[in-house]
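Table S2 (continued). Query chain:
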Amino acid sequence: MDTRPRSFYVLAGFFALFLLFLYGPMISVLVLSFQGPEGGLVFPMNGVSTHWFDKLWQGGGQVEIGGALRRSLKLALLVMVLTVTISVLAGLAFRRRFRGATLLLYVAIASLIVPSIVVSLGIALEFRLIDDAIKAIGMDLGIEWIQNDFVSALGPFSSGLGAHLTWTLPFGLLIMFAVFNRFDPAYEEAARDLGATPWQTFRHVTLPMIAPFLIGVAVFGFTLSWDELARSSQVMGADNTLPMQLAAKTTTVTDPEIYALGTATTGGSILLVIMMFTLASLLQRRRQRG
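Corresponding output:
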């Protein structure tokens, strides 16, 4: 006889509805992306095939993603590398007490609470001022390439890179602060007692111990940059990233090709996360065996 109280079933039903609300849209997009050539944007489905994935891969459809995909991938990889590098260096620096450390920490993570569109607008305004300064210098000094060819410093790997780092770095910093707060310095002291230099201590002792957490920081850096829209909206200049391209196409797309793109990018993100966490698990096991 089932002795569980009625509240158990109420809470279970509420949780099931929450999961449906959370993952229902993604599942719907996944299912609708496998429609036949006559498929539409809503249920019921019209056939089952990979037609829209083939069309997406061949290009020339309503969703032109080649350039936007390459830009987003390159930008996300660069953001990932910089996020990991700066986060590790900051984590090492904050292990030592220095004047203004608390203020610097608050400034570093303040962008988490600032509305993303405000950050984007602020960076865009800053770069427009830089554009004006560069053009003024070109006019005053008679620099021909500035006068004839320079348009704007706004771009994915200048203003766009800075905008994405304002989003990814705080997460990386918080992770590394938590890691180093629990880090036992006795291992490093033992290495130095054995004659290791600071670089050797970091490379052979500190880095292997924090490597699994660096993978987590890398995943944060890549995925947050990969799908960032609000902070990208004002700072990319004439070049769209993949999320911006998707947002621009949602008002005109009339077939499931955009669903196929959503399924492909979501699947790629999930695959990346699985690979990175598998690597982290392997590194953890290797460290434990060592």
